[in-house]
Predict the structure.
Amino acid sequence: MSTDDRATLRRQMRAKLRAFAPEVRMRAAAGVARQLDQTGWLKPGLKVAGFWSLPYELPMLIAQVGIEKAGAQYFLPILHADQTLRFARFKAGDAVRVNRFGIPEPLATESACTAADLDVILMPLTAFDRQGNRLGSGGGWYDRTLAGSTAPRRVGVAYAAQEVPALVPAAWDVPLHHVLTEQTCLACQPFSAP
Ligand SMILES: Nc1nc2c(c(=O)[nH]1)N(C=O)[C@@H](CNc1ccc(C(=O)N[C@@H](CCC(=O)O)C(=O)O)cc1)CN2
Ligand SMILES: Nc1ncnc2c1ncn2[C@@H]1O[C@H](COP(=O)(O)OP(=O)(O)OP(=O)(O)O)[C@@H](O)[C@H]1O
């Protein structure tokens, strides 16, 4: 898949997502929270990174509440100077600053850690396929952050409508173990039982 194809798919998918009605967004947000709960992953003390959803991304608000209710710890990504992401604890109401992409980040960074310190990383994405290939925002942030690491469990969060038949991965793409949608928690093929 060429860089042009990737840019075109990003543009088309974002246009489709932007057209979703508010009820569709909120139903999906509740659906993803339910699917996450049903995985059985959430345990007290589990470290789970989410993200502060952009307007066209699936709203993470309800899942975040579910994570906290289960006693797990919720983290948000922070852009680090080395072009990778760090992650800091975030609870509703905590102070934030807006980063250069217009995305809020926790202001208090005492708890900041690297991806290897997390148990589960819930990632935004633009499009995914059943093999676990992920097309992101185009900055390569998650790929750089996760390059060469085994932990944590890598989970895409998306509307079911973001699935595409096949993405051709780039050399640096780090595949997803699972994709959580409002309908299911998909185990991506290379990581699912035979
Ligand atoms: N909600 C959310 N938080 C996130 C991400 C994300 O995709 N969504 N990120 C995911 O990495 C990181 C921030 N990185 C980002 C990278 C690029 C763009 C962006 O807006 N890019 C260009 C498109 C570039 C292209 O198509 O080639 C744009 O939309 O103009 C946004 C965030 C960490 N936090
Ligand atoms: N491990 C890496 N080392 C160096 N550069 C990388 C690495 N991973 C990705 N990149 C760079 O990041 C750029 C964007 O990658 P890509 O299009 O796959 O981003 P993305 O996965 O859509 O974005 P994001 O993870 O931010 O949502 C690529 O052009 C590549 O040069």
User: Anything to note?
Assistant: DSSP finds four helices and eleven strands in the chain.
